[in-house]
Amino acid sequence: MDILLLGPPGAGKGTQGALLAERLGLPKFATGDLLRDAVKRGTPVGLRAKAVMEAGQLVSDEIIMGVVRDELAKPEARNGVIFDGVVRTIAQADGVTALLTELGRKMDHVLFFDVPDQEILARIEKRRGIEGRADDDPAAVATRLQAYRAQTAPVLDWYRSRGQVHLIQAVGDVKAIAATVQGIIGR
């Protein structure tokens, strides 16, 4: 089962993705985590992505699709993946759809986590205090939200036009939101 989690930065995709991956026994594929790991290790893709991420911009489709292809080739991904915020542009939506098709698969569920901006900003500020992530400073967050609205929000319409989107009001208790997700997924 392949599941895509969509929503703005700080919408809870990572939290709900981890719960979902554990419950379904699927790997959670979060581009941001993989890219931050590559930056930390100083890999070529990490070095290319570092400046872009720290400026709050989105990493290029080419880099993302290379990472997605590599991840889908891993044996642990053969039964499905939780895509945590992976598809951020229409080109990526097309690319992921093509990659899954090559594997004889399709995106089974698209979950959109809807959260008001004030809540997002409060969550990211809290996360910044806990994790100390460089990409969570206020200027970078403002840039990421602007980039999200310009480049990623149209992806929601792309999936909606295919009848694949489940809207989740993602404010409130984490367990209640997880129960909503479970109800949609069916397990």
Question: How would you sum up this structure in a few lines?
Answer:
The chain has 187 residues and is α/β, with parallel strands linked by helices. The chain is built from 8 helices and 5 strands, in the order βαβαααβαβααβα. It has helices spanning 13-24, 31-41, 44-54, 61-72, 90-102, 117-131, 138-160, 174-185; strands spanning 3-6, 28-30, 82-84, 109-114, 165-169.
What can you see in these coordinates?
- This protein has 187 residues and is an alpha/beta fold.
- It has one domain (3-181): P-loop containing nucleotide triphosphate hydrolases (Rossmann fold).
- Helix content is 58%, strand content 11%.
SSE blueprint:
Elements: E1 3-6, H1 13-24, E2 28-30, H2 31-41, H3 44-54, H4 61-72, E3 82-84, H5 90-102, E4 109-114, H6 117-131, H7 138-160, E5 165-169, H8 174-185
Parallel strand pairs: 1-3, 1-4, 2-3, 4-5
Helix pairs in contact: 1-8, 2-3, 4-5
What best-fitting shape do the alpha-carbon axes yield?
globular
- H and E string: EHEHHHEHEHHEH
The figure for the number of domains is 1
Strand order of the largest sheet: 2-3-1-4-5
What's the CATH architecture?
Answer: 3-Layer(aba) Sandwich
Radius of gyration, CA atoms, in whole angstroms = 16 Å
Q: Give the terminus-to-terminus CA distance.
A: 11 Å
Continuous helix count: 8
CATH class: Alpha Beta
Helix content: 55-70%
Poorly predicted segments: none
The counted number of beta strands is: 5
CATH topology: Rossmann fold
Protein structure class: alpha/beta
Rounded mean pLDDT is: 87
